[in-house]
Fold:
Amino acid sequence: MPEILFVFRQGDQTSDHSDGIEFPDIGAVQLEAAKSIGEILRDLNDPLEAGSEWRMEVVDEARKPLFSLRVITELHE
Structure:
């Protein structure tokens, strides 16, 4: 399996982890992606604003998209 990169986006901000990581299979990539986004959200110091979106794009070393995870904040009144 090629090296995998995680790209985080929140609004206009992008955090691109340029060092690729090798995984044995796509299942291991999905599990690590879910854990990573959970850790980022857990460590937030401010509440998420209504309508805000966090997105993790998982790409291979050629920047070909494999899948995305999204967290969207919605308020229901």
The longest strand covers residues 53-60. DSSP finds one helix and four strands in the chain. The helical segments are 26-42. Residues 4-72 form one domain.
